[in-house]
Every structure is written in C-alpha cells, then in structure tokens.
User: What shape does this take?
Amino acid sequence: MPDATPPPAPDERRERLEALRTGALERLAALGRSFDDVVAAAAGANTDDEHDPEGATIGFERAQVVALAARARRTVDEADAALDRLRAGTYGRCEVCGRPITEARLQARPAATTCLTCATARR
Ligand SMILES: [Zn+2]
Assistant: This one.
C-alpha cells in the first residue's frame, strides 16, 4: 500500500508526540481527581460491603480508574520513548523489520514502534 502522505517536518512529529504526552498527562491528572472522588465516596458510604450494594460499585469504579490511569501512564512512557527515538534519529523505523513506518500510521499512532505489517503479524 503506497503512503501518499508527504513526510512532515521533524518539528511536526515532535509536536505530535508532545501533544500525545500532554494529553495523557492531563487524562492522568483528571483520573487522579476522580480516584479521589471514588475514595471519598467510599469513605462517606456505609463501608459494610456485605449489606451495602454500593460497596461493589465503588470497588468496580476504582478498578476502572486504576486501569485507565495505567493506560494513560503507559501512553506517557511510550511518548517519552518516541521522543527519545526522535532525538536519536531512529523515530519512524520499525523495531522489528527496520523498514520505515508509514506516515499514515505514525499520524494515527505517533508512538508506534512497529510497522503495520509487523504489528499485525505479532497479534
Ligand atoms: Zn516491521
């Protein structure tokens, strides 16, 4: 499949990765706040789980917030690693086959470390 999108200026790639990183950090901050809300709700609620159906809901909400926060943190790490690769000049190269990752894929997933072929093969 030919990649029709022209390669962007290096700055554009850095900005894209920084936007990804900033977005994930903001999500993390927002999740931190909602985690506090869940904990506060749990503290305010009747803590007798057996007789309080709220107990299970709060546990579920807390697990969801924790999972979302873990994902946001991973995105921050991936963006950091991609920014390192950008500085090192290896950004946009598939770490499995060494071929360039298409610009379309990098736009969709700025922190991608593999080309679409290798990502698909790995699954
Ligand atoms: Zn590859």
Observations:
- Residues 94, 96-97, 99, 114-115, 117-118 surround zinc ion (CB under 6 Å).
